[in-house]
């Protein structure tokens, strides 16, 4: 992908870039989150999207601090490591058709 549009959450389909609409929206909660807690990812995912889902947490320096593959739950959960220092992180959720981005505050 040559470019990326960032909104509150953004979607980058494999076929190009499109803005979020009501059917593409996802939510992550709680936000802010504390180290050791889990973030719940809520959206309308197909079983195929859940099966292909990868979730990564990045520090703003670009360092990947957590990765989760092969999600089995309807509402995937990501545990924030006790080792995560307080601050802002980028949560990247990749499915077979979309990439979702969200900023997460760890307190």
Key attributes of the depicted protein:
107 residues; 3-stranded antiparallel β-sheet; 6% helix; disordered N terminus
Report what the structure shows.
- By secondary structure, this protein is mainly β.
- It has one helix spanning 47-52; strands at 10-11, 27-29, 38-42, 54-59, 64-69, 77-79, 87-94, 99-106.
- The chain has a five-stranded antiparallel sheet with strand order 1-8-7-4-5, with no helix packed on it.
- A hairpin with a 4-residue loop joins strand 7 and strand 8.
How is this structure best summarized?
The protein is mostly beta strands and 107 residues long. Helices cover 6% and strands 38% of the residues.
Major sheet: size, sense and barrel closure?
5 strands, antiparallel
- Order of adjacent strands in the largest pleated sheet: 1-8-7-4-5
Q: List unreliable stretches of 5+ residues.
A: 1-23
Structural class: mainly beta
| Number of helices, where a helix is a run of at least 4 consecutive DSSP H or I residues | 1
C-alpha termini separation: 32 Å
Q: What is the helix content?
A: under 10%
| Beta strands, count | 8
> Approximately what portion of the residues adopt beta-strand conformation?
35-45%
Output the helix-strand order: EEEHEEEEE
Return Rg in Å.
Answer: 13 Å
Q: Characterize the overall form.
A: globular
* Mean pLDDT reading: 74
């Amino acid at each position: 992908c040559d470019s990326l549009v960032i909104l509150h959450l953004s979607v980058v389909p494999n076929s190009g870039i499109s803005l979020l609409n009501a059917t593409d929206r996802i939510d992550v909660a709680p936000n802010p989150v504390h180290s050791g807690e889990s973030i719940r990812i809520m959206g309308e995912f197909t079983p195929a999207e859940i099966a292909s889902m990868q979730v990564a947490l990045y520090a703003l320096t670009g360092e990947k601090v957590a990765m989760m593959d092969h999600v089995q739950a309807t509402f995937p959960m990501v545990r924030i490591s006790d080792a995560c220092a307080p601050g802002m992180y980028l949560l990247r959720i990749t499915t077979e058709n979309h990439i979702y981005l969200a900023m997460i505050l760890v307190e």
